[in-house]
Specification:
Blueprint (H helix, E strand, L loop, with lengths): L1 H33 L5 H5 L13 E9 L3 H9 L12 H6 L22 E3 L9 E8 L3 E5 L10 E11 L2 E10 L4 H42 L1
Antiparallel strand pairs: 1-6, 2-3, 3-4, 4-5, 5-6
């Protein structure tokens, strides 16, 4: 009996701690990571493709400043994808799940042109990894990737990349994800599991794009000086 009371007390204590941690995450950490790096105007402003998901309950807007022109940043964005330039994120972690991602450290000329309807895979063909289609593209400015249904505003998810050049040598790269959870269970999983993982991977991606674009710009500048 004594052991059972101890176990029940331990269970209640763990439950209380779990609720406290969940509450802290939902009230403090989640609002922060959903708009990491973004200004108030960027987080609340409208971006192309916002209307492709009719009832989005998973929404994040993240941004980073890159010391390069939009023209210099765009090639790294347009070549995103499995079997293309990768995602500039945690490659080893992605490949533990068999996604076969290889992050490019140079611009791939063969992956610089996209059209509406083109597929952007998150994993290799034949895998269970989802894929997106190009729903909207404005070269040098905007790329909107979407799950099926964007034509009728019934897409389950969109991933938007917007480049805002603030000066000839500085660009804001804004990335917005909008998704719809089809059930209460999927909504809970999305908020407590998927969103934190997505944040970690997406922040690494933004930093990876910045690193590559700024390094390429520095190399080009050094080359002109010689």
């Amino acid at each position: 009996m004594g052991t059972q009371r101890v176990l029940r007390a331990l269970g209640r204590a763990l439950g209380t701690v779990g609720l406290a941690l969940t509450g802290a995450y939902l009230l403090a950490l989640r609002p922060w990571h959903r708009r990491w790096g973004a200004t108030d105007a960027e987080a609340t402003g409208t971006l192309p493709g916002d209307d492709f998901v009719g009832d989005a309950d998973v929404v994040s807007t993240r941004a980073i400043t890159i010391a390069a022109s939009a023209r210099a940043v765009w090639p790294w964005v347009v070549q995103l994808g499995q079997g293309r330039g990768g995602f500039y994120s945690y490659e080893r972690l992605e490949n533990l799940f068999g996604l076969q991602i290889h992050n490019a450290d140079h611009i791939l000329s063969e992956h610089q042109h996209l059209g509406v309807g083109d597929e952007i895979r998150l994993g290799p063909p034949g895998s269970n990894a989802p894929s997106f289609r190009v729903a909207l593209i404005d070269p040098g400015r905007t790329l909107v990737l979407s799950a099926p249904g964007w034509e009728t505003g019934s897409s389950e998810a969109t991933w938007t990349f917007a480049l805002h050049e603030v000066s000839p040598s500085a660009t804001r790269l804004i990335v917005r994800f909008r998704g719809h959870s089809p059930s209460l269970g999927s909504r809970v999983v999305n908020r407590l599991v998927v969103e934190p993982v997505q944040f970690a991977m997406e922040r690494k991606m933004l930093k990876g794009i910045r690193k590559r674009a700024e390094r390429a710009r520095a190399s080009a500048t050094e080359g002109r000086r010689r």
